[in-house]
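pasting for ref
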Amino acid sequence: MRAVVLNQHGGLENLKYVTDFPDPRVIEGHVLIRVKATSFNYHDVFTVRGMPGIKVPLPMIIGLDMAGEILEAGPGVSGWKPGDRVLVNPLNRQQGLMGEMMHGGLAEKCLVAEHQLIRMPGKVSFEEAASLPVAYGTAHRMIVTHDTIRKGDKVLILGASGGVGTGCVLLAKMLGAEVIACASSADKIKRLKNLGADHVINYKETDFSKWAVEQYGKPQRRTYEGGVDVVINFTGGDTWARTLRCVKRGGKILVCGATAGYDPKEDLRYIWSFELKVIGSNSFYDENLKALMDMIQRRELKPVIDEVLPLERAAEGLRLIESREVFGKVVVTP
């Protein structure tokens, strides 16, 4: 079958498009799916580079998120049949992540455990479903499952133009928040406005923390005046200390990653002085993915997809992710 294979860690040049990778064979408790769409996440960049403490069995077909049709059901599988449309939860309970510990979605076919299957509603496209798990699933758990945003809240979102970020913008607006979206270019800012963001900040030109203080007032220790209600920060790095300075007393900082650095300079004085709530959110579950697909089915949500590429151009799509040139998701259709 055709596939995109990582043979050794390093740069994107180590991703090779091949036409003769061995087809997977169905086994007990698993189904064989024909991959109809897969989408990239920044985690795929980390997999290509190599991550300390994680030994990826090479060669590896990368790609966490995928949707497709069942071709064959193995022994012991019940309730599923060829032709069923499925979204795959990329976490295998026994082995780990698809595209990291076992072959993922950048191929024509993929072997998937039965417990990873989620039935797709009829009005949800393969491209829409494949864009959901890591990005939108994470955003949904962080915002909806943990019940962290209220109607009227002022919500500042860092990294708003990526997969998780666009998901956060859409969900926050659905909940009635006033959304401040941060991005790095005029084009992304324009597209965030079109997506519904109430305010947009080019963080390369404007300090988001100072902007928030100028716009809403300096947070006060004895009252609840000034600052924003919520900051969504999955970048970390040099944005962390600035985040602490613009959140109102009793406000929330939502964290689901640290793409710019996991060990930032900390200032605990802000956390106790302003009674801040730092709320972590890890991963997603089937309930998040089902809820998101129901939103798409009802036309309440439309995932933001920047590019849809054929399998042979997959490395180009991952380059867009790595260089942060993308707005929303990059989808590959094998």
